Amino acid sequence: MDEMNKSQHTFVERIKQSALKIGNRLGTYRVDAQDATEHIQQNGAFIVFTVIGAFVLMAFVAAVVFFITIRGPEKVLVPHVVGKDLETALLELQSKELNARIQLRYSDSPNDAHTILEQSPKVGAIVKGYADVSLVVSRGVIIDAVGDYIGKKLDDVQIQLQTLFAGSTRPLVTIAVPEYKVNAAEPGTILEQEPPPGTPITEPVTVHVVVSQGTDIEMIAVPDVVGRTLDEVLAVMAGTRLEFDFTAHVVQDGERAGTVVSQQQFTESTLRAYSRVTIDFAFPEYADGETVYGIFTQRLSDYPYALLMQLTAYPPDGTSFPVVRFYHTGGSVSIPYAVPAGTMLELSVAGTVRHKMLAEDGAL
């Protein structure tokens, strides 16, 4: 019995000693935890900035790696390919790692076929690799032989060629100043051409043509206009199929200002339609400050037949009126006028304005 009590007492003592050791350790742990908490509280800002700095550093490193990874192509110098054939140009662009964007266009010379006419960007430009370079490539010429113009109207052929080569710096086919001759064909019809139809075009060519002026020879009575006023002469000019070459001089003694003092004389009383007659005016020496006298002159193309022309006056007051309407075959054109000072004069041929001038420019 005593031994049992003694064993129990020893067991209890051991438990007490173990509990005491555990308590001492827990106390130590509590002290360590408290010290750690105090340390964190004292150095909290440093720790926060340290964490933020670490994140910033990680982001910077990531960005550097990203941009290094996706770095664009190197810059290159655009080569000169204008005048080279398309295959050579593509190989040169490919060697520079450049892409070609091709446009096709007709050119003025048969020798330009499949060659580069233009490039953009220009030679010497610095661009990134794989950039686009626009190339204009020649498709050659629109036509390669002279057409057959015999039997066609001259006006129609000229319009056709203008339309065909619209935008060309140098048309492949042009019509020379035509030669006219009496023929049973309708006036304005092409009778002959040189070079002949089908002639190969290797460079721009000028076609010479012979054009019919018809068989009817109309004879016109020559009017006597000596002593007539300017307005009366303009009325005659509008109503006859003759062409007048006007001259003028300062009025002399015995002459009446603003009238015709002489005209060209002929042995016959009639002339072929659109023959020329010279008429001379006497104009005032000084303008009165309101009316300006003068001769409007202009050099036009020679037309195969007479075209309707009109000289229109635009005075400074904003109004306008026709000075005269008449038919003329072109070449040298002259028109007398007496209009308000500062008037703008405008000559139109078949409805198209050909020339403008201030009335003072022609005043005596």
Describe the structure.
- The chain is 27% helix and 35% strand.
- It is built from five helices and 18 strands.
- The chain has helices at residues 2-42, 44-69, 86-95, 154-164, 230-239, and strands at residues 75-77, 99-105, 116-120, 126-128, 132-138, 173-175, 179-181, 190-194, 205-212, 219-221, 243-250, 259-263, 270-272, 276-283, 291-314, 321-340, 344-349, 352-358.
- The strands form six sheets. Strands 6, 7, 8 and 9 form a four-stranded mixed β-sheet that branches.
- Strand 15 and strand 16 form a beta hairpin.
Overall radius of gyration: 50 Å
What's the main sheet like?
4 strands, mixed
Which structural class is indicated by helix and strand composition? alpha/beta
Helix content: 25-40%
- The arrangement of helices and strands along the chain is HHEHEEEEHEEEEEHEEEEEEEE
Categorize the overall geometry.
Answer: elongated
Low-confidence stretches: none
Helix tally equals 5
Percent strand: 35-45%
- Record field, number of beta strands: 18
The span between the termini is 166 Å
Rounded mean pLDDT is 83
